[in-house]
Amino acid sequence: VQLQASGGGLVQTGDSLRLSCAASGGTLSTYTVAWFRQTPGKEREFVAAIVRTSTTVHYADSVKGRFAISRRNAENTVYLQMNSLKSEDTAVYYCATVRRGVVLTREADFTSWGQGTLVTVSS
C-alpha cells in the first residue's frame, strides 16, 4: 500500500488542523494505521493509532484529549484531527500502516510509510 499524507501547514497556538492519510494499492480498512511525528534531531514519536476494526484507538499522552484519529473507508483515508494545537506539536507528521489488528506504537512495527507533512504551530 502507498500512503500520501497531507493537510499540514502553519497555524497559531490554539488552532485546529486536520491531517489526511490517503492510501492507494490497498484497502486501508484492513490495516492498523498510525500517525507519528518527528522534529529535527529527535526520534520519530508515536502520536495515535486506529486498529483496522476502527473500534480501538490509542493516543500518546501528550495529545490525548486534543487529537482524534478516524477513518473513512469509502475514501480509503485516515484522518488526524488536531485541536488546541501547541507550539510543541510542531513537527513533520507521518502516517504508517501495518497489516495487523492490534494497537502498535513502535516505529519498527510499521511496514509502510507516507512521505510526511509539516505542521508548524506558531505562538
Describe the structure in your own words.
The protein has no helices and eleven strands. The protein is mostly beta strands and 123 residues long. The relative contact order is 0.32. The model has no long low-confidence stretch (mean pLDDT 95).
Q: Could you give a short description of this structure?
A:
With 123 residues, the protein is mostly beta strands.
Strand content: over 45%
Distance between the termini: 37 Å
Which class do the helix and strand fractions yield? mainly beta
Q: Count of helical segments?
A: 0
Mean pLDDT: 95
Radius of gyration: 13 Å
Stretches with pLDDT under 50, minimum 5 residues:
none
Q: How many extended strands?
A: 11
**Overall shape:** globular
The H/E string reads: EEEEEEEEEEE
Helix content: under 10%
Give a quick account of the main beta sheet: strands, pairing sense, barrel closure.
Answer: 7 strands, mixed
Tags for this model:
four-stranded antiparallel beta sheet, globular, seven-stranded mixed beta sheet, mainly beta, 123 residues
List the helices and strands and how they pair.
Elements: E1 2-6, E2 9-12, E3 17-24, E4 32-38, E5 45-50, E6 57-59, E7 67-72, E8 77-82, E9 91-98, E10 112-113, E11 117-122
Parallel strand pairs: 2-11
Antiparallel strand pairs: 1-3, 3-8, 4-5, 4-9, 5-6, 7-8, 9-10, 9-11
